[in-house]
Write a structure and sequence with these properties.
- Helix content is about 25%, strand content about 25%.
- The chain is α+β, with helices and mostly antiparallel strands and about 270 residues long.
- The chain folds into three domains: about 10-50; about 55-170, 2-Layer Sandwich (Uridine Diphospho-n-acetylenolpyruvylglucosamine Reductase, domain 3); about 175-270, 2-Layer Sandwich (Enolase-like, domain 1).
- Strand 13 (about 205-210) and strand 14 form a beta hairpin.
- GO terms for molecular function: FAD binding; oxidoreductase activity.
- This is FAD-binding PCMH-type domain-containing protein.
């Protein structure tokens, strides 16, 4: 879509963009949402792709994902063999309601900053205990846990002009065992619910993350293997207004799926004993 209010495009921003940020600016990476509908308040685009941030940097400490990393790049990444949860990166990419052509442009950071309940990069990063590195316009930097970033549908922790620079996934999370469940109304449709369970090797702990079904990610952690009633009680304790409602499912339907999948995931990771 043509953005007929745009007066200028900054194609080569400074290495640390933001010092000249003003109302009416918009960060441009993949642009798959930005160009999908009218943006009447946008006057200037700042192109982040020209900064050539490294897309994927694996280290002994984990995986650093540049915010401008495309979904295609993440999907093609081959994680080290000892990262048993590394395949969740690819699974998250395959949960996109988008064609392969969109994968070539859409970015990991863009999906996170859109902060839709069904954003699969949010699901992936929350389940893998990621942290987000944020740059402010005054040159300061802060780190936010993925589970605390999204506050609701299209709501997040970003301040005016603040930018997501990178996503860090710790190696310890990538070495966990995991299982997942996802429900959609159609084979390639938007997620009605996307749940991931993880367990630390050598322990009987359990962490359940619930996304798409709720307005913001819900993470339930158990220090030891819980029984079915304990898990159900934790899900039932989620406030009624947190369950999301849209054409893909009612809050009641989503809560039912969460209960059902939680028991499957608990059993799959060994919690049925």
């Amino acid at each position: 879509m043509d953005l007929n209010t745009v007066e200028d495009v900054i194609r080569r921003p400074s290495a640390r963009p933001g010092s000249d940020w003003h109302a009416g600016d918009a960060w441009l990476a993949g642009g798959t949402w930005l160009f999908s509908e009218p943006q009447p308040t946008v006057r200037r685009l700042v192109d982040l792709t020209a900064l050539c941030w490294p897309s994927l940097v694996p280290t002994d400490q984990g995986l650093e994902i540049g915010a401008t990393c495309t979904i295609r790049e993440l999907h093609e990444f081959a994680p080290p063999q000892d990262w048993s949860a590394g395949s969740l990166l690819r699974i998250g990419c395959e949960a996109f309601l988008a064609s392969f052509k969109i994968w070539n442009a859409a970015t990991v950071g863009g999906n996170i900053c859109m902060s839709l309940p069904a954003g699969p990069m949010i699901t992936m990063s929350v389940a893998l205990e990621a942290t987000y590195r944020l740059w402010a316009t005054d040159g300061t930097e802060r780190t936010v846990a993925a589970g605390n970033f999204v506050g609701g549908n299209h709501l997040n922790a970003l301040g005016p002009g603040e930018i997501l620079r990178s996503i860090h996934i710790p190696a310890a999370a990538l070495r966990k065992s995991y299982a997942h469940r996802r429900f959609t109304l159609t084979k390639l449709g938007r997620s009605t619910i996307f749940m991931v369970a993880t367990r630390t090797p050598g322990t009987d702990d359990l962490t359940l993350s619930i996304t798409a079904a709720t307005a913001y990610p819900i993470v339930l952690h158990f220090d030891s293997a819980p029984d079915a009633d304990t898990v159900r009680d934790r899900i039932d304790a989620i406030p009624a207004d947190v369950w999301f409602a849209d054409p893909n499912g009612t809050p009641e339907h989503r809560r039912h799926l969460a209960r059902h999948y939680a028991e499957e995931l608990r059993a799959e990771l060994g919690g049925a004993r």
